Amino acid sequence: MANRYLLGLDVGSSSVKASLVDADSGKCAASAFFPEHEAPIKAAKAGWAEQDPQSWWNYAKLSLAKVMADAGAKADDIKAIGISYQMHGLVCVDKDLQPLRPSIIWCDSRAVPYGERAFNEIGAEKCLSHLLNSPGNFTAAKLAWVKDNEPDSVFKRIHKIMLPGDYVAMRLSGQVNTTVSGLSEGMFWDFKENSVASFLMDYYGFDQSLIPDIVPTFSIQSRVSATAAKETGLKEGTPITYRAGDQPNNALSLNVFNPGEIASTAGTSGVVYGVLGDVNYDKKSRVNTFAHVNHGENGQTRLGVLLCINGTGILNAWIRRNVAPDGMGYSDMNDLAATAPIGSDGVCIIPFGNGAERVLENREVGCMVSGINFNKHGKAHLMRAAQEGIVFSFCYGMEIMSQMGMDIHKIHAGKANMFLSPLFRETLAGVSGATIDLYDTDGSVGAARGAGIGAGIYKDHDEAFSTLEKLQVIEPDDAHCDEYLHAYAHWKEALEKMV
After folding, report:
1. How distant, in Å, are the alpha carbons of 101, 125, 127, 153, 156 from that of 150?
2. Are 72 and 141 in contact (CB under 8 A)?
3. Are 305 and 185 in contact (CB under 8 A)?
4. Please, what is the angle between helix 379-403 and helix 481-498, to 10°?
5. Residue 231 burial (CB < 10 Å; 0-12/13-18/19+)?
6. What integer best gives the mean pLDDT of the chain?
7. Sign of the CA dihedral 224, 228, 232, 236?
8. CA 36 to chain centre
């Protein structure tokens, strides 16, 4: 029997990862990423961040060649291609589909004033009710910067604008298209009118012809061209059937599709991404809301509400460097932290020491440690308080999601980073009251499964994720529920004094 592989490409700012997933068993046959060291980001000025789109294509070809070789796969074996990508970037191409300038990527902050001006001049109610967000520092505001600062050399020559994933799909197929999910993350989608946000386009002076054709997230969006087949070794005509930004795709990877389900990650920064079943927004714009991967399917509303906390794993790393004994690893830190009682015996850490936090309305409040008693507190209390502070910041954002109408009952996460800590997991389950399911997956594997849905190899997401390996389930500890909630209330009191 011939192999049936699904190819997933995850286009990040540090690397491009490729994975081949066996369509029948659901197992990952091979994965590879390039470059092996973090990809360069050019910062010509403070706050700028740019990458050459051609580099993504080069990395994709290198990672693809390696997974094909490692799996012993042939071009005919690849049945569909899915793409995940770094969100909010801007790629501008001319009529020959050549980039006119480096991509302005997600962490570039030069467009903040353009988004703020639009929010104030158009009005908060109009922006939030139609875009579900402030125009902020997203793709539309980045394009406004280009229009204002590079009017002749770039803006007047733009044929189409793209997100990073759109660009890689274009290199594979020669066709330019995008998705509603992608347009929503760039602030180009009007949820009230269910169309391109003409009011924002008009405000910035953008012609609607700049927007690529719109294709469904799960569909035959395009096919590998003869040119790309020669460059990559793929078979001409192989369908590209799925595309999504990294956070919606991470949720898909963790089988998060339905209202009330949450996908969470906790690396250097932390993300909580929940699915909402009705169009809504936070009036203070403390979280971002985009179209989820399955928004609009069968007429259903599926929005992804994104909470990002900057000071998560970076706080735990700081504790390791500055509090833990020399040579102590994270596992031993977790064990030591667990010897302190729930609530850390009154020690409280506010973990916002890594820049301005959107959940705090873009305030930069810093990290605070309070409640220390020199006669009874030690390293264990600080280590536990750090993990509790991270969990409490997640729950603080999840309360905003609940106020928007999200009934949170399950959290899906990969068993990695902070989720390796039993204390972290148990505290999150205890405070949120949600069950936590831990899985073995990543973005490129998720993109491959998404491709299987889009190609019709899987009839729906239930079939696509039936083989997803669940590693562990953490249930809320009812016996200690009051202690967790008391500790969280104490933390919120400390936060409110700061802000």
Report:
1. 10, 31, 26, 6, 9
2. no
3. no
4. 80
5. middle
6. 96
7. positive
8. 22
Q: Which of 66, 53, 248, 20 minimizes the C-alpha distance to 169?
A: 53
Task: Output the CA torsion 35→41→181→155 (10° steps).
Answer: -130
Report, in this order, helix, strand and coil percent for the chain, each rounded to 5. 40, 25, 35
Structure token pair of residue 377: 């507190």
Model's pTM, two decimal places? 0.93
pLDDT tens, 244-283? 999 999 999 999 999 999 999 998 889 999 999 999 999 9
Strand partners, 274: 262, 305
- Sign, Cα dihedral of 238, 83, 179, 463: positive
Residue written as tokens 């799909």? Answer: 169
- pLDDT by residue (tens digit) across 378-431? 999 999 999 999 999 999 999 999 999 999 999 999 999 999 999 999 999 999
How many DSSP H helices and E strands does the chain contain? 16, 23
Helix (H) or strand (E) holding 21: strand 16-22
- In single-letter form, the type of residue at position 20 comes to L
Q: How far apart are CA 98 and CA 95, in angstroms?
A: 7
Distance CA(173)–CA(415), nearest Å, equals 35
Q: How confident is the model at residue 313 (pLDDT cuts 50, 70, 90)?
A: confident
Q: Give the closest residue to 286 by CA, choosing from 414, 393, 429, 418.
A: 393
Residue 455 near residue 17 (C-beta atoms within 8 A) = no
DSSP string, 257-289: -STTEEEEEESSSEEEEEEESS----TT--SEE
CB 6 within 8 A of CB 82: yes
One-letter amino acid for residue 305 of the chain? V
Whole-number Å distance between alpha carbons of 184 and 191: 8
Residue type present at position 382 = L
Helix (H, G, I), strand (E, B) or coil at 145: helix
pLDDT at 1: 64
Amino acid at 375: N
Neighbour-count burial for 311-344, b at 16+ CB within 10 Å, e otherwise: bbbbbbebbbeeebeeeeebeebbebbbebebbb
CB 73 within 8 A of CB 20: yes
